Structure formats: structure tokens, C-alpha cells
Amino acid sequence: MLHPDLQRHAGKFYGKYSGEVTDIADEEQLGRITVRVPPVFGPELTVRARPCFPTGHFFVPPVGAKVWVEFEAGDPNYALWVGMWYPSGTVPAEAQQDPPVNRVIQTPSGHTVEFLDEEGEEKVVIRHKENAFLAIDKDGGVLISNNKGSHLFLNATDEETTLVEQHGNFLRLTADGVSLVNNEGAATLQLTGDTARLIATNIVLEGTSVALGKDAMEPAVLGQTFSQLWNAFVFHTHATGVGPSGPPIPPAVPPLGPGTGLTSSVVIK
Prior knowledge:
The protein is mainly beta. It has three helices and 20 strands. A hairpin with a 5-residue loop joins β6 (about 100-105) and β7. The protein is rod-shaped, with a radius of gyration of 40 Å.
């Protein structure tokens, strides 16, 4: 005969018991799971267990996960799953640190949120299972990358921003200005102060109109058309009463042509 103080605990199950998730279907979407708890119910019987979530969280373990099970007031009719544990060899790689200073959240498919708390190396990393990620370093710099090799780095230490995309094109923004370089390094645009510098083997400006200079009004001269008029002028002869004035004297100014009076590197339409 048990003492009355002990009798009320008969048939109660206190503490945590190891269990395994067998089903996560919940018609009310409350986070309840079906779980097998061999230490209490034997190896075959399963029971429904309510969740014990931290405030603001909703993480349901997958089928096959190892969980800790408790019972409300020790009553086996009211099971609660209160956490999970990792069997050997299943700990996320990001958490395998010695000492274990990394805090890691990982979904069954492999999405990861990682908090690195080692002094001097603090970092937050959000990583997609296909290895696209967002990382915040110890100085507050932010690196964003897709899984093809494009990177955007908001560098808090050097106070600059760089973008390198997967094909090798490069953009850099600093306190001094902006620099844009194509993937072959053959074309560069630099914006510094009140100066824009464009470097390339071939530069094409396409537009209905192009104005060079503030309040530009004067039209540009069409070189080939003007050269015809110019050459006709410098080679012309005058008729006289007895015939032509004779062969023209070679002009002091040579005829216009590319490289001679006309640029060979700039063309207009």
C-alpha cells in the first residue's frame, strides 16, 4: 500500500522520454505530430503529441526525427513533444565546431541560418540549399551571392560597394566615384567628381540627337560632304578671255581627308 502522497503519482510519467516522429499530418495545422515512444508505450504503439514551441516559432520535425517527449502533469494521455536530438553523424556541418560556438538553424531540405559567435569572427549567414547566401560580417558589411557566382559586397570597413556578376562584369562605388569595367577589361567608365571618363576601342553614341557641351546650338560639320566643297575650292580655276587661267597652283593647304584635316577616329551621321 503506497503512502497517499505517492499514490497520486501512480501511473504518471514525469521527465523526458526518447521518441521518433512517425507522421506530421495535422488537420488543424497546430504543429502536432504522431510519435513512437518505446520507453512508455512499447516499440509499436504511436500517440499524438502537441508541440511546445518557443514564442514566435513554428518548426515541425520531419518524419524520422528523434524527439524528446513529455506528458502534461505526467498523464500519458497528454503527450507533448518538447525538442529534438541529433543521432551521431547527423549534426549540420555548420554546427560542428569545437567549442560549439555556432548557433545553427537548418531545415530538412538544407536551408540554413547560422550565427557565428566566436569573438572577433562574429557573423550571420543565411544560406539557401543551392548555396545562394547572405552574410553579415563582424563589421556590419553585407555580402550577397547567388549560386552562379554573382556577388554584391556592401563593404562597411572600406566604405565601398562592389558588384561582380557571374560573367565577370565589375561595378565599384567608392567615396571617390564610380567605376564600371566589362568582363574583358576592354571598356571602362569612370565617374569622378565632375569628370566622366569612357575608355574603349570603339565608342558608339546612338540617339536622335547628341549635344556636346552645355546649351550646345551649333551643328557639327559633315566631314566628307565638307571635304568635297573644300577640295573644289582649293583646286578651282577661273576662265579668262583667252581660255582657262592655266593649271592650278598646288594649294598651300592640302585637300581634306581622314588624318589630314579630318579626324580618322570620330564619325557622325
